[in-house]
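Hey team,

Filing this mostly as a record. A colleague (T.K.) asked me to run one chain through the structure pipeline before their review meeting, and I want the input and output archived in the tracker in case anyone asks later how it was produced. No errors, nothing strange. Just documentation.

Input sequence:
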Amino acid sequence: MSRFIVFDVETPNRHNDRMSAIGITVVDDGIITEELYSLVDPETYFDYFNVKLTGINEKVVADAPNFPKLWEQIEPIMSSGLLVAHNAVFDMNVLKRCLRDYEIEWRPYSRYICTVQMGRRLLPGMSHKLNDLCDHFGIGLNHHHAASDSHACAEILLRYLENGADIRQFIRTCSFIKIM
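Output structure:
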């Protein structure tokens, strides 16, 4: 696999079933070729904790597209390569819940890689928090901003690949099949 779709989402509240922002960084053959960032109107309430963490609130997303409208734009990108995220279970589940709740059919399964899981195997004995890895590799980070987080995750992935990591052992599968 030579095309990676690295993404990060921010959420408005503790339910983690809606996005308030998404950052996407595309890596083609070892080079970052495209970056996309969008606020998302989650069409729900914001928790104080999430607002403090991300700086995103109702006013910030007032003119942003909702998830179905944004999905029209990002689906071709999300479908074009192997998905990657830092703590991917979180981001994959938010994506899965948004698709489910808005009744958007995608594909039944998606393959993905988690850079936290990669790091635990490749760099044992250290913290694998995004900010700690960015410090370790000298990568700039505006933490909890989806564009910066997805870019940093892409840079971490590239460091792992440059050091000879075999991604095949880290590929996982997420099901998007609706259970009735």
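Quick notes for T.K.: Helices lie at 48-54, 67-78, 88-101, 115-122, 130-137, 146-162. The two ends are 33 Å apart (CA to CA).
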